[in-house]
Design brief:
192 residues; alpha/beta; six-stranded mixed sheet; 32% helix; globular
Length: 192
């Protein structure tokens, strides 16, 4: 279409503990349909999904090519993590708020994928993914202080699926704005 142009390509990592809902959310946000038989199948290494999205707050006709890296939560793939992290624009830590061990485990994911990369808080997102039959209410969770600085959203694809999509588009807007600011600083340093 005339007037539309792809401005940015964002590489977003979906990371977090096993069985937290990373693949279900990745499929939903990218409109990918897979055989859904309800059976849990762990991701082996990483799946890369590509789609276009309109980040919120990034201009009227701004589109973004999203490369969504659905990363396995299995630590046996830890040797692959540096390659996954390389050139990432943002990181989303997905966890199941019903699983008490997930709250502790996300601290490890934070230190390995976010703190080590020097990403800004607005390039990161915590997603408390509520599975069917979840007992945890939306609201404050007992997070470590460094995690409480990150945006936290609750997703429930059974009850409010579009809320999760809108929250992801807002987050993507933050990532694109950060990429834009970084590009402008780079261009200015070349000029001066």
């Amino acid at each position: 279409m005339l007037g539309e142009r792809i401005m940015f390509k964002a590489k977003i990592l979906f990371i977090g503990p096993n069985e937290s809902g990373k693949t279900v959310l990745a499929n939903f946000l990218s409109d990918t349909v897979e055989n859904v038989d309800g059976e849990y199948r762990p991701t082996r290494g990483v799946r890369i999904l590509e789609f276009e999205s309109q980040p919120e707050g990034s201009g009227d006709n701004a589109k973004c090519e999203v490369e969504l890296w659905d990363c396995s939560g299995d630590f046996k793939f830890e040797s692959c993590w540096p390659a996954m992290i390389k050139d990432s624009s943002g990181v989303v830590i997905i966890f199941n708020p019903d699983a008490p061990n997930h709250l502790k485990e996300i601290e490890t994911w934070y230190s390995m994928f976010i703190a080590s990369q020097g990403l800004q808080d607005k390039q990161c997102l915590l997603m408390a993914h509520h599975k069917p039959g979840s007992r945890v209410e939306d609201g404050r969770l007992p997070l470590a202080s460094h995690l409480s600085r990150l945006a936290l959203i609750h997703s429930n694809l059974e009850e409010e699926p579009e809320d999760a999509r809108q929250a992801f588009c807002r987050y993507l807007g933050n990532v694109v704005n950060t990429m834009s600011e970084s590009r402008e600083r780079e261009e200015m340093s070349i000029i001066t």
